[in-house]
Amino acid sequence: MTEYGRGYGSEPWHPEDPLYGDQGSSRGQEQQPQWDGQQAHRYPQQQADPYAQQHYNGGWDGAQGGQPPYDPYDPYGQQPPADPYSGTNPDYYAAPEAYPPQHQHPHPQGMQGQQAMQQQQQYQQPQHPQHPEPHYDEGTGAGDDWRADPGPREPEPEHAFFADHGDDDGRDDLDPREEGRGGRERRGKKNKKNKRRSGRACLVVTLLFAGAVGTVGYFGYDFIMSHFGPAPDYEGEGTGEVQVDIPENSTILQMGLALKRAGVVKSADAFSEAATDSKKDKVLQPGTYSLRKHMSAASAVELMVDPKSRNGLTIREGLRSGDVYKLIDTKLHLKKGTTKGVAKTEAKSLGLPSWAKNASKLKDPLEGFLYPSTYSVGEKAKPAAVLKQMVARANQVYEQHDLEGNAQKLHLESPMQLLTVASLTQAEGKYKHDFDRVARVVYNRLKPDNTETYGLLDFDSTVNYARSQSTLDTGSVDDLRNFNDPYNTYKFKGLPPGPIGNPGEEAIRSAIDPAKGNWYYFVSINPEKTLFAETNEEHERNRRIYLKEQEKAKQ
């Protein structure tokens, strides 16, 4: 603080001051309070103003004792309040670029403020520099409605990737005062560097964006093609030869997967579509097939439905076990009787169900358990393995039809008897439309109150099984009644000891759920027609029809 502080008048503070007494107020020579170690005026923190006594026709002077008005255009007048953020007064003598845009600033209200405004507009001195009005702060002040501009904000930090790491001499190239010192040239160089740097950044961003778009496009195309596009498939009939084993109970999709693993088709989906479209999915059966590699799915389906391509072993419904053994020997190029011997010696280890424990006492222990189907039999397969596969298939079907539970419902002694009824139905009925009524004839003849046959089945099929033959001429009634064999149903009442063949699923269903009726007799007059009768007289009439049909067939 200087020794010239501002008081209530324009006089210096001390009489010894050289200026003491030279200047006076236009309103008198009123002495100012002396300095006694403390400032006795109202503005102790303000510096002396040698121009404080100047006023304009009725304007403020020190003798009026009021607070001097603030004039933003008077560099020597009262300074604006300190900045609330930095605590310092704004510097209006800084570089020209530091001034904010100039705009009007309202003067203090009241008569003195209006007069000051008018005098300022009339007597504005040109030698004073034009100072812009401080920037208003929207914050709330303690009694003031404006605040000084805190100054330019600090620039936000620039990302290191885009920062200029070139040489910098510390001079501001945008300052007009630097024009003569190469500022313009340096700005041109910097602009070129920034342009090159921006170009590289844009190139990197473009490459990254292109890579991302390409990746998304590739995986998107792959997703669409895998979910909505056609299934991959080969073309043509294929080449070479390969054997494919289709496991039992395989679905069409599982068949396709097995063919794909063997290199036959390109995809399981293509095979499934070809089999479904051709409506041959129900014809395809498990087994061993001789196919070619790289076949189209349609060609593979066509070849698999052709019996010549099936490298498996097919067992038809009603076939006796003895005939099955012969087929296995032929398939595996074994000596005749090899498989039959294995069946007798290894029957207990082939997986028969617990309710078939007495099967070893029968004429053939595996009769009824070599389920009709097509089985995969390779050239190096063993007879025991083939028989075990057939028994396992039979167990699966019999469990599905609950032979144990249904045998109890039908008042049979065991599931073995239910299986025997199914084998009789298969042997006597021949066709599905006759199975339900043939099964009913069997159950009617087994009734204790049967007065038509008195508990005898009288089936030629059982006699043929006992004699290991298949003929319609089994002999006279007297000859049949003299044939002493437990499978001779003309002599022994009730069911035979066991099945007489390997029934299929339709015959099993008919044995479980037979038709309702009082039939005791039936006769097949031709392969397409079977006549049923409730009495013996009606049955004899049907027999005469049968004999006429036989005579026509011989002509």
UniProtKB/TrEMBL annotation:
Q: Where is the composition biased (Basic and acidic residues)?
A: 130-165, 173-185
The principal location of this protein is: membrane
Keyword Cell inner membrane in the entry? The reply is no
**Reactions performed catalytically:** a peptidoglycan chain = a peptidoglycan chain with N-acetyl-1,6-anhydromuramyl-[peptide] at the reducing end + a peptidoglycan chain with N-acetylglucosamine at the non-reducing end
Q: Where does the record place it?
A: Cell membrane
Entry's EC annotation: 4.2.2.29
Q: Where is the composition biased (Basic residues)?
A: 186-196
Q: How does the record classify its membrane topology?
A: Single-pass membrane protein
Q: Which residues cross the membrane?
A: 201-221
* Pfam annotation, one family: YceG
- Which Gene3D superfamilies does the entry link to? Endolytic murein transglycosylase
The record's GO molecular-function terms, alphabetically, read:
lytic endotransglycosylase activity
Record's function text: Functions as a peptidoglycan terminase that cleaves nascent peptidoglycan strands endolytically to terminate their elongation.
What protein family does this chain belong to? Belongs to the transglycosylase MltG family.
Q: What is this protein called?
A: Endolytic murein transglycosylase
Q: What is the lineage of its organism?
A: Bacteria, Bacillati, Actinomycetota, Actinomycetes, Kitasatosporales
